[in-house]
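>> Question from a student workshop board

For tomorrow's exercise we were told to take the sequence and the ligand below, predict the bound structure, and bring the output to class. My setup keeps failing. Could a helper post the expected result so I can at least see what it should look like? The ligand is PBG.
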Amino acid sequence: MKIIGSYPKSRLRRLRKTSWIRNLISENAVSKNDLILPIFVREGKNIIEPIKSMPGVNRYSLNKLPVILNQVKKYKIPMIALFPHTPNKKKDKFGNEALNPNNLICKSLRFIKKRYPQIGVMCDVALDPYTSHGHDGVIINNEIENDETIKILVKQALLQAKMGCDVIAPSDMMDGRVGEIRKILDKNNFKNVNILSYAVKYASSFYGPFRDAVGSKSKLKKDKKTYQMDYRNSFEIFREVGQDIKEGADMILVKPGMMYLDIINKIKNNFKIPVLAYQVSGEYSLIKNGIKKKILNEESIMESILSIKRAGACAVITYFAIDIAKKIKTSI
Ligand code: PBG
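>> Workshop helper replied:
Here is what the output should look like for this input. Compare the format with yours to find the bug.
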């Protein structure tokens, strides 16, 4: 690139001199339209239970969901992501509870779609909230068995679609599941249900607080490195994303978000498909604790989300969604 102008003729600070000129030339912005709020649901009645590892985030019993959903509605956040905290007694080796039409996710979907039809709802397709071992798939001969897991995942996806889920989000990282899910959805007349593929999901330490939130942390034996991606790599994103697009994904998710800005950017530049990113629980808690301890200021929240947007994401799943929406006054 040719360098244009040099000091003293060129003074770059001239474009930073006041807030209006900084606003005028700003290249990126965060709008309410860019936000997705994850919500944790639990059993019981009249419960809003704080999650220790995620300050400011709660688990809601069904009848208390309106407390958070009214805010989502008020601030016009387009979509929420639902996650269940399943009681231990309902977990087993095969994650059978995932296929129970009266599980927490199904009940929540019916509840939300009836009362808040204007809010988009996405649901994870993966078995980890339901398995006694905390893995996203079934274990056969000591291995997370890809093809046997897919057989269950497609049923889970179909059930969610029947309950009113708008966006199916396979987060399990099995090979080939997007195609199989698309097939079963289409066969059952759910051709308008979207698939947001967690195509690029790294085996990350930053999921720790989330696993605590859904109650899989203490259960999890060993790591998820045989199915989630190795954080030393980036080439394989082209195969992961390419395959999922071919199989019918509408949108691609990168996860975690903040630590993987290079990955978001590569996908944005190489594929013509919406890329979303997940600012995960560990990333959230680090910032939140920093603010609580006055090590960071409030603006660090916006900076973190904007960096993900600048990298190329069109939307961000973030536990800060409401905080950010409150700061943003307008949305188109
Ligand atoms: C489960 C799932 C995880 C997250 C979203 N879906 C955890 C994992 O894969 O172990 C993490 C989200 C977060 O950390 O905020 N498949």
